[in-house]
Amino acid sequence: MDTLHIKGGKPLSGVIPISGAKNAALPLMTAALLTEGDVLLDNVPRLTDVRTLIRLLTELGCEAEFSEGSADSFGQGLRLNAANITSTTAPYELVSQMRASFWVLGPLLTRFGEARVSLPGGCAIGARPVDIYIKGLEAMGASIEIVDGYVHATARNGLKGTHFRSSLVSVGATHTLMMAATLAEGETVLENAAREPEVGDLAACLTAMGARIEGAGTDTIRITGVKKLGGANHRVLADRIEAGTFAIAAAMTGGPITLTGLVPETIDATLSVLRAAGARVDVSGDRVTVERTAGPIRAVDVVTEVYPGFPTDLQAQFMSLMTLADGESEIVERIFENRFMHVQELARFGANISLHGDMALVHGVKRLTAAPVMASDLRASAALIIAALAAEGETIVNRVYHLDRGFERIEEKLRACGAEIWREKA
Ligand code: UD1
Predict the structure, then answer these.
(1) Which domain holds residue 64?
(2) Per-residue pLDDT averaged across 89-104, rounded?
(3) I need a labelling partner for 228 at 20 to 30 A (CA). Which of 125, 169, 372, 374 fits?
């Protein structure tokens, strides 16, 4: 297994282009199952999760072909064509590797009247049930059985529009139900829908495919079903989690680091918290510069929330920053019940963190020292890198395959800013 090596303590400064968002690319790719036409995506990030989903889509009979991305895009082009689907079964071997694979359920069911999709896997960050997906699809008239670890959904006469209020806000259930509703008969209203920018990005692509959707980006989405969808061209939204991660790294190491090609308002909550922690933040067009010139890192309390609140996907990275703060920070995790696995790894750098249910209390220390550490999940891996960049000595991060699922060329991007970071192949 590859390891990442980081010699900390180097000041970082430079420019980092932000990649297309993994969390936008994945649902956009599943949307290709809704049509016989070509879905042409641009700015698709080079990530293991993208390749895992392509393996699943091709297993179902979808064509997938990469090309050069457009000149102004950091990512690649991807043509998907699902005209000749040969299977509506998404097998355990593929779905268990990544939870978003489960999202093929909505498009397959609504277009073909049937789908068998294995219950998902993904990062080990809590129970992550699928009850809302099931309740929503049942409300649209699907019959659903769980047999041998598979969700078997049928709707022989097609799905019907409905009024569905979700008991909690789920990004994946919103993607799934919105896609299912595009080809259902009549109007569907999704209440308590996720407002994450990736939902808006998916809605924009579906609309370009001929879907009728209003309200994406608010908590009430109205979809009027159409008979058929066509192909579309769509550029994947910039990755707000990647941007937030580098912004936190800049606050940790001093900066200035300029992030380019992002949508700054999608990281508003993160930028406010970084300002409160003592960073200077300048926003100009699609660029954000983060710098911490003088003074200590200030302790700030955060609570993870659904968008537009502070994202759970930046909780671990922010905790790394707080390990060096002057004072005590309370970090409350409200989205996932078991997302503190990075705490024991951060302790290996000398961080002082205690856990109290869904709250981590971080007592800032004066310095971190390098250690061998283990990445426990995707975002936690980025947290370890941020700590390592500030730690004295050489850190070795094991299990970096977690990182490759969701951060495109992270070593290259950090090296360009002066970090001493390299990968050793096993
Ligand atoms: C997506 C993101 C992930 C992010 C998360 C929350 C992708 C590929 N993944 O994951 O990076 O951390 O949103 O912003 O976009 N829940 C239920 N029942 C359900 C569905 C969800 O109880 O049927 C719970 C989950 O266990 C969790 C919470 O709802 O506690 C939010 O999960 P959800 O928004 O569904 O996360 P994902 O879509 O899986």
Answers:
(1) 22-235
(2) 92
(3) 169
